[in-house]
Each structure stands twice: as structure tokens, then as C-alpha cells.
Write a structure and sequence with these properties.
- Its EC number is 2.7.7.15.
- This protein is an alpha/beta fold and about 200 residues long.
- It has two domains: about 140 residues, Rossmann fold (3-Layer(aba) Sandwich); about 55 residues.
- It is built from ten helices and five strands, in the order H-E-H-E-H-H-E-H-E-H-E-H-H-H-H.
- The chain is elongated, with a radius of gyration of 25 Å.
- The protein starts with a helix and ends with a helix.
């Protein structure tokens, strides 16, 4: 038996500590599928997930929808996750791997340019401790934000109806009145158009 085969057998027989990290803002099924891949890399996996700190995330990636506590709690309640590290380091070091007894780091294979590095996962790739996961097409936090922004008026009037104030929603008095007028016209059209169709059908 070769050394490679022997190592593979050892990995299959013991508990492997796999680490994945990210921002995990507005936790969605794409995140869950990535963590499922991590959990199933080996027969016995203890999955450790690092969630980036709020201050560092805002500095390097920009504003988040959820704060650090909300992001880490969302990850903690994913069934594939055994342990959460918050805040986690933006760039993984040997000291961090040793501290948490990490065997492998899992992420998609594309170079991740950030914090002045061409690829913040270059170190673990070079060390042979990197395992590739696949991204889920069609879903990301940016996609979710885009959907909300695309129908901003609809979601704003929805929350006004649910009792939120214009101050809470960050809109002016004029914007609120304009939205309510649009909503009134829209509701009126829903009632008038079917009525006109019924009259037309009767006339025929």
C-alpha cells in the first residue's frame, strides 16, 4: 500500500476537523449547501466554521445586512455545523490551524483576493490542507439584496402596512405619501379592471 493510500485510509477512519470560513451575511441555502459539502468531505467530520468579525468585514467588504452576532447565530443553527469561531481571522495562519487542530480548510477553488493578498487561501493550498467546495449558482447575499432593491417600493409599502414608521424605514413624508398614492391607485385598478371586463362581457 502506498503512502497516499495509507493517508486516505487514515482520513476515512478518524474524525477529520474541517474548517470553513466566511461572512455568512443573510444566511441562505447557498451557504447551507456549502457547509453540507464540507461536512461530507470525509465519513467522519467535525465541522468548524469561522464567521468574520464585524469591524474587519465592514473595513474589507463593506456594510452588512446582519451584525456579527446575528451572522454567527445563523451559522450556529445550521445542522451541518459542529462549532463556530467568532470572530475568525481574515487570513488563516499556522497558529490558528494548530490552536483549533484543523486538518483541512474548505472553500471554493477560485483565488480570493483580499487584505492585500492575491489569494488568502494560498497558504493552506500550498500546505496541502485545502479541500475544494462548489458555489451554488443563482444565489448569493448580493442577489438577495438586489431583489430587495429592485422592488424597494413594494417592500417599503408592505412594511408601512405592517406598522413600521417612515422614520424606521428611512423615507421622507413626501416619499411615504407618494408610495401610499401609488398603492391606492394599484388597488383601485385591481377592482375597476375586472368590473369593466364584466360589463364588456354582458354587452356582448
Amino acid at each position: 500500500m502506498s503512502q497516499v493510500e495509507n493517508n486516505q485510509n487514515n482520513d476515512n477512519n478518524r474524525v477529520i476537523r474541517v474548517y470553513a470560513d466566511g461572512v455568512y451575511d443573510c444566511f441562505h441555502f447557498g451557504h447551507a449547501l456549502q457547509l453540507e459539502q464540507c461536512k461530507k468531505l470525509f465519513p467522519n467530520v467535525h465541522l468548524i466554521v469561522g464567521v468574520s468579525g464585524q469591524e474587519e468585514t465592514e473595513k474589507l467588504k463593506g456594510q452588512t445586512l446582519m451584525n456579527g452576532y446575528e451572522r454567527s447565530e445563523s451559522v450556529k443553527h445550521c445542522k451541518w455545523v459542529d462549532e463556530v469561531v467568532y470572530p475568525c481571522p481574515w487570513i488563516i495562519t499556522q497558529e490558528f490551524l494548530d490552536e483549533h487542530k484543523i486538518d483541512y480548510v474548505a472553500h471554493d477553488v477560485a483565488p480570493y483576493t483580499s487584505a492585500g493578498s492575491d489569494d488568502i487561501y494560498a497558504f493552506v493550498k500550498k500546505a496541502g490542507k485545502f479541500k475544494e467546495t462548489k458555489r451554488t449558482d443563482g444565489i448569493s447575499t448580493s442577489d438577495v439584496i438586489m431583489r430587495i432593491l429592485k422592488d424597494r417600493d413594494g417592500y417599503t409599502i408592505r412594511n408601512l402596512k405592517r406598522g413600521y414608521t417612515r422614520e424606521q424605514l428611512g423615507i421622507s413624508y413626501f416619499e411615504e405619501m407618494l408610495l401610499r398614492a401609488k398603492e391606492f391607485i394599484s388597488e383601485l385598478e385591481k377592482k375597476v379592471v375586472p368590473c369593466q371586463r364584466r360589463k364588456k362581457n354582458k354587452a356582448q
